[in-house]
Write a structure and sequence with these properties.
About 50% of the residues lie in helices and about 10% in strands. It has about 525 residues and is mainly α. The chain has a 3-stranded antiparallel sheet. It is elongated and about 90 Å long. About 35% of the residues are buried.
């Protein structure tokens, strides 16, 4: 796949130089390796101006080596290499690769940062393999070959259950699903945002994978499960030697995700056709990325109709990973969820959904092979952290109900009213919400639409619920806690089942607290 859009080239005076200095990155993007900026894929453009800091003979060899890495390795890896070599220059003050420079660099990197030394050592070793080491003293290799350097720590966020970067708690994860449905129904969340959030929550895939999906990757099929199932082919991200979308792995999705994804695809296709001023062919519709940046639609308007299909088949129209991550974080921010662990607005990253999927699978008893397949790892070396973490996670979750911060868990989404009369002012003839188990009424419904959800449990989690300030909500709490204890006994301590109504318990607690504050003025 050859692309020549948005690429920078340097003009030279001698003949045919453009042919000899232009190469193609691992992801198929053309770039001039003598220029100061290399565009390697839709996400990554590296600034090579730092090479001027090296002594002249070595500088050219390093550039040749980087050109090899850009052709053979993922752009993300090349970008990391560039950052590490720049760090070496900054920390050592050396303008070459020397034994003194490496000793200084290693001494300045603490143990958790030693992997950065390994990056630079690996780079010079590759230079030797490519016979580009004639300006590097042999003492460098004799010294660094003796070192045993550990890699970077993996799974710290998962093992420590970091409340800002680690897996979501059960309450946080459930609140994301609950609040996203409510915000979408209220029109406060766009279809593309809801679809984005649903895909990350359902699949736990990396942002670069979600961003590489095309509309043709979705289908209803029975070839994987024997019954009609909505599935998506997700491109694998870390494939050694693999190109863009070289390996596709099927993943099943539930109907609720299917509905929002199909609606998003329909709306986005209509928007693109409106911009183009014509109907797209079925093949063109299939090649559309699942998520498109606004500037890409403008770019498509400049492409001739007979060239559009080739453009759509490339990586170019797909949303940049950073843009997709911003869309995800913006959607989560709109949910206005307060973390019960920090008392602050919930912080999200694409990896938090991934960590959560692995952690929840481990709690359900999945082994490393199953988790590796679920998270689309090519091996099991990085999934042990989920299994190792299971006991700590169970203990952590069990404490949530007694935490002072539990009141911030954002479970109650409705609006407290004085009494039934006030509820009827907002919604004339509002239906009463009963609790038959305790023979009482606790509030009114703020909607006239038909509802089959189980009252009053579902009501406390619904934004349409109008609990009365003078209702006996403590009886509901008493009943739910009794039910929780009964389930714990009946299931021999299976907290996954016993805690099924924990969200409702928190919501009732929050209503009781609001009533207390209201009645006390």
């Amino acid at each position: 796949m050859e692309n020549n859009l948005n690429h920078e080239h340097v003009n030279f005076d001698f003949a045919n130089e453009s042919k000899t200095t232009t190469t193609i990155s691992h992801n198929g993007f053309e770039f001039d390796y003598l220029s100061s900026r290399w565009t390697l894929n839709r996400d990554i453009t590296v600034d090579m101006g730092f090479l001027d800091s090296f002594v002249r003979p070595l500088r050219d060899d390093i550039r040749e080596a980087f050109a090899y890495f850009a052709e053979s390795n993922s752009p993300k890896y090349v970008n990391n290499l560039v950052n590490m070599i720049r760090l070496y220059l900054r920390e050592t003050g050396c303008d070459d690769f020397s034994d003194i420079g490496f000793l200084s660099f290693k001494n300045k990197m603490s143990k958790p940062l030693q992997y950065k030394v390994a990056y630079v050592r690996g780079f010079v070793r590759q230079m030797r393999f490519l016979k580009l080491d004639k300006h590097i003293d042999d003492a460098v290799f004799k010294l660094t070959d003796q070192w045993k350097i550990s890699g970077n720590d993996k799974g710290v966020a998962v093992l420590t259950l970091d409340p800002e970067t680690g897996p979501f708690s059960d309450l946080e994860f459930q609140a994301i699903g609950l609040h996203s449905a409510h915000r979408y129904a209220e029109g406060k969340l766009r279809t593309d945002e809801y679809a984005c959030l649903s895909m990350f929550k359902a699949t736990g895939r990396r942002a670069v994978q979600i961003g590489s999906i095309k509309c043709k990757d979705f289908e209803y099929s029975s070839k994987y499960t024997g019954s009609q199932t909505y599935s998506v082919l997700i491109p694998r991200a870390k494939v050694r030697g693999g190109k863009f979308r070289s390996v596709l792995v099927p993943y099943g999705l539930v109907n609720s995700v299917a509905q929002i994804v199909e609606l998003h695809i329909k709306e986005q296709t209509a928007r693109v056709e409106g911009a183009l001023g014509r109907k797209m062919t079925p093949e063109e519709k299939g090649e559309l990325p699942l998520f498109i940046d606004t500037d890409v639609i403008k770019e498509m308007q400049q492409i001739k109709p007979d060239a559009l299909l080739d453009y759509l088949k490339s990586e170019l129209p797909h949303i940049k990973t950073a843009s997709l991550t911003r869309k995800l974080n913006s959607a989560v921010k709109k949910l206005k969820i307060i973390s019960e662990r920090t008392g602050e607005p919930l912080k999200s990253t694409s990896y938090r959904f991934r960590y959560t999927l692995g952690t929840r699978a481990a709690r359900e008893g999945a082994g490393t092979l199953t988790i590796a397949r679920l998270l689309d790892h090519s091996d099991t070396q990085n999934v042990g952290v989920y299994v190792a973490n299971t006991p700590e996670h169970a203990i952590h979750i069990s404490k949530i109900m007694n935490q002072p911060l539990a009141r911030y868990a954002s479970m109650f989404a409705g609006k407290l009213v004085e009494n039934e009369g006030e509820a009827n002012i907002e919604n004339a003839g509002a239906a009463r919400i009963p609790c038959r188990e305790k023979d009482c009424d606790v509030g009114s419904c703020g909607s006239n639409s038909f509802c089959q959800d189980y009252a009053p449990i579902a009501c406390y989690l619904c934004p349409k619920f109008r609990p009365w300030a003078d209702a006996p909500h403590h009886l509901i709490l008493e009943w739910l806690v009794e039910e929780r204890d009964r389930l714990k006994v009946d299931t021999n301590g299976d907290m996954q089942i016993a805690s099924i109504n924990d969200n409702a318990i928190l919501a009732v607690c929050q209503v009781i607290q609001l009533c207390r504050e209201h009645n006390n003025g």
